């Protein structure tokens, strides 16, 4: 992994000459962000090669503990079990908003948190109950363990169970495609991936936009975190520093997530 | 080997050839032995791999049963990892149903098109078709999944109701994915049936179809069984596409239009993000799947063996 | 003496129909992929490196990675797979317990979901043996995945050869291995090629297992020990993370073309090899 | 009594790709008679036989010109039901090829596909056919074992039984006695003599004595030509063509 | 001059699963002589031939007891190099089976695997073998066409040429003349007479005249037993066993 990952300069920033290979592994939702960050980082440090791997948050933790990866990328909070396995340093690098989305053809444009919860509890089954047309609601959710779902159940569901009949998709893309293809579907995805074939709903009258996330009026959000074994050192530290630098944070914003405070 | 009488003979002028493995022949024989050993090793690789995989899956999966009874795991329909409920009963049923559903249409269509390519279509067309079918085998599962999601699911929703993500959608997509395996392996073994059988049958006044039905297909039986077994293996093991079109609700389906979750889907869906007991439960799912496949193969082996004695080989 | 009976015509009709269904499926799926993918397709898309996590630039490194990984998997799996088939059909007695065991394991291996291979490869190769995410780890994992197909098809091809060929060759004083080399393998070749081609398809189309073993890093691999992202993994990321469905289909289109080319070359080179 | 011709060939030519194997054969095959075909290896005897029931069509690259008649109906036309033709004109091949099934199933195959399904009836046919082919005694206690396990001569007799079970009108036999011991050969010759009253038989043989013994007519082929065709007695006693004489007296070549 | 025995079998028994096909055969095969084996179909002739070069082992479920000697060396032992054995003891099978290759490649197959790679040398061997088998004239202009396209008799001669090309010491022939016309048969008989000076030949034939004409010794098999084995002259003129007499005079069964 971190081969000859020494830096010859005395501070971790920009101008110092860095060399070696850095491996980041984990959450697939963080992966595109890490990739763009790595692209920039490598441009600035031609001697560095950054490998960005996916595999999921759990694989990221696994790989970081075993040393196969220098940095693990996780799109949810670490579980207690994971925290106990090894001494891991957690560095939040971005905030990602989670949007509740429906088909653009749906005439509903905003819901109360309580309604969303009731839909996902299976109590509200038809769009007409909440101001839509007379059609059954197709509830689309993410899989157990997903960071997006984690945020959704914590904030919207209050840890109550999502209805068993919900359609489960295991990626942002699949949820998007499902909702884009079904006029009566509702789902939730990372705000950065909303696009024009699905429509984000206002929640409790708050639009799903950066300002509301920042101000905390739009509560549905989750962190992207980097984990390292012990405190980050060498290349890993240099990279994390870069990510947290204004330049790095700007890239994150360009890609659709939000700065860490 | 018993020796009754030694031949009592004199003056035997021998050629300078020795039947016995003598020094000068040593090397040649050694090469043969060496090759046999190498080939034996190749075969042993299978056992080694399976052993490694077994150890690995079982080591990771077995600990679950210290917390949850095997019966609960197998037969309970409650799957709620965050709350600590791990029951794969629904997925067991889902796996069986979607595999059967896929086989139900793709085996007959696959076999009859294999026959079409081998026996009925002009050889050139048959060959071209075979090569095209190989293309189907190379299309990544994800593409099938998205095609399913964008084309087949809405089609089902519009034509039959429900939301489209269903057992039916899974069976259609899976069936398409195993077609190449079924078609091309059976086609090959149909083509390998000696021509003499065909002419003998036709000369007895059999129609072309009767010849196919009663001589050619039975003679190619073992290859056809292989194709179906490999196809079924692929069906059970295929996930990426199934996950995208079956809806994955952990419920017992009430109709072919209801969503289902298979055991493989369960693993693929959650493994990337699972930890702790949840992860162990997913490995235990893999373990059950593994045993299911072994059992299934034992049964097929038995069935295929019954009445294969045609005196060849 | 009349013409062909109505019943026969009906049966023939069914056969033609199933042929047509296959053609229909083929044309619609490939047609769909091409229609969705052709928009992003240009020379730059094929020959340049991806930029911006794949939402810009091309897919060149993923093409190269796909080729490396597939080739490595074949180099490992074809000799072992065909070797095992030869052993089972030519050396082992059909009643032997070992043969029974190998056959059973081969079939079991065929049914194991690729995600399990991926997890196995991840824990055993990537972590335990310390190979890391690399072409080597991915190639070995793929090889394990395609072994059963190669072996079973080769076995089948050998089994269907008329036993007389074997007898005649041996009676001419050919050794067992010579008989295998000169008679059995060449004549079983079409079946073996079918297995190899199906396997190439499987290897090129695989995603889940590769993400865990070869990784999904976007760089251009320089050695066996570098991580690599294949085209399928790339399109998986593009589609599943909602980066760009159009580019995903563009990549799929290139996969189809690549499969065509690889199949052609595999056919050609294996036929050469048999001489 | 006027002669009844069961089959006739008119200017029959067969080409394998460019190679012409039959040069335009005219032959009349009389009903309820045995016609023997003789001639050196490679002269076209098998080709001729195979073209009588249109089996040559199965070999890719084969073209057939001229005409063959069965009961004065043309055989090479689009309207002919080839299956019916082959059912009426049975064939024993030069290389006996048994199906990979049991002995019983090999013989029952023909009757079955022609619609006989009753077990009794099939049993009867199998037994009768095997008896006629002089194989019954050897195999009656192992009817269900694979036919591939029979000895060479047993397989040849099995193939004969298989054809008899279909009960055709014409039987074409391509060296049916080649792998048979003298006893089985004698039996086969007796059988042919018996069958004659109900069937028309064409037999290829390399055994001149056999041809002389069993046949009513003999045709001598050479390089794809029918050099001479006549009463067997005439051919063997009074051959008109020098080449025929040379061949049957063994002075050929 | 004392007799030199090239091959010998002692109490040779062969079982197919439970069926005993050979009942304990003792036979001495003299060097540079022709030994003919006769007997009704299914009596074990092919089985006996096939056990002389251990080809029976290829059929699963076969057990062999007793011993066979080649030049006084035991053949059924673990130390024997079966490949050498089969190279020294060549075999022409009852059912000619050509490899699906060209005519040339079929004949060159044996020499090639025995290490001859020079084109000239192979060409010579192929030509010589095809000439010996009396096939050269018919195929010299199409050596590269597939062997499967030959007529039945041509294939049989090709198989003979293929064995000659390996130049064994003993040649086992299982009804090599079954599909041959009289001319080719006569040639084959001449060939056998010629080969005799360098090879030891064992031939299975159903043709009594042929056995009488070409062989020095004749063995009569019946139901897996070697009923009588003697000088050919004695066997045919003075059979000691009633069953032999019945068989060769055709009074059998
Ligand atoms: N593979 C086998 N399994 C079982 N029985 C067999 C097998 N091969 C031959 N037999 C039986 O062994 C006996 C001897 O067979 P063999 O082939 O030696 O006869 P043969 O004397 O050569 O007869 P033919 O003149 O018909 O060729 C026969 O009864 C035959 O049915
Ligand atoms: N499939 C084929 N392709 C090309 N030539 C062929 C084919 N079959 C036969 N021939 C040639 O046609 C000629 C006639 O063959 P045919 O089989 O009719 O001979 P035959 O008289 O039956 O000889 P035999 O007595 O040896 O069986 C031969 O020269 C043969 O080589
Ligand atoms: Mg012929
Ligand atoms: Mg025999
Ligand atoms: O864990 P996810 O970010 O893919 O929901």
Uncertain regions of chain A: pLDDT < 50 for 5+ in a row? Answer: 1-14
Count of helices of chain A? 9
Q: Kindly state the percentage of residues in helix of chain A.
A: 25-40%
Distance between the termini of chain C: 49 Å
Q: How would you explain this protein's 3D organization?
A:
- The complex is a heteropentamer, with one copy of chain A (261 residues), one copy of chain B (313 residues), one copy of chain C (275 residues) and two copies of chain D (253 residues).
- Chain A contains nine helices and eleven strands.
- Chain A is elongated.
- Chain B has two domains: 67 residues; 239 residues, MetI-like (MetI-like fold, Orthogonal Bundle).
- Chain B is built from twelve helices and two strands; from the N terminus they run H-H-E-E-H-H-H-H-H-H-H-H-H-H.
- Chain C is an all-alpha fold and 275 residues long.
- A two-stranded antiparallel ribbon of chain C has the order 1-2.
- In chain C, helix 7 crosses helix 8.
- The model of chain C has no long low-confidence stretch (mean pLDDT 88).
- Chain D starts with a strand and ends in a 5-residue tail after the last helix.
- The mean pLDDT of chain D is 91.
- In chain D, strands 6-7-8-3-9-10 form a six-stranded mixed sheet, with helices on both faces.
- Chain D is globular.
- Chain D has a single domain, classed as Rossmann fold (3-Layer(aba) Sandwich), CATH 3.40.50.300.
- The chains are: A alpha/beta (261), B mainly alpha (313), C mainly alpha (275), D alpha/beta (253).
- One adenosine-5'-triphosphate sits at the interface of chains D and E.
Descriptive key words:
heteropentamer; A: 261 residues; alpha/beta; 9-stranded mixed beta sheet; two-stranded parallel ribbon; 32% helix; 24% strand; elongated; disordered N terminus; B: 313 residues; mainly alpha; MetI-like fold; 2 domains; two-stranded antiparallel ribbon; 12 helices; binds adenosine-5'-triphosphate; binds magnesium ion; binds phosphate ion
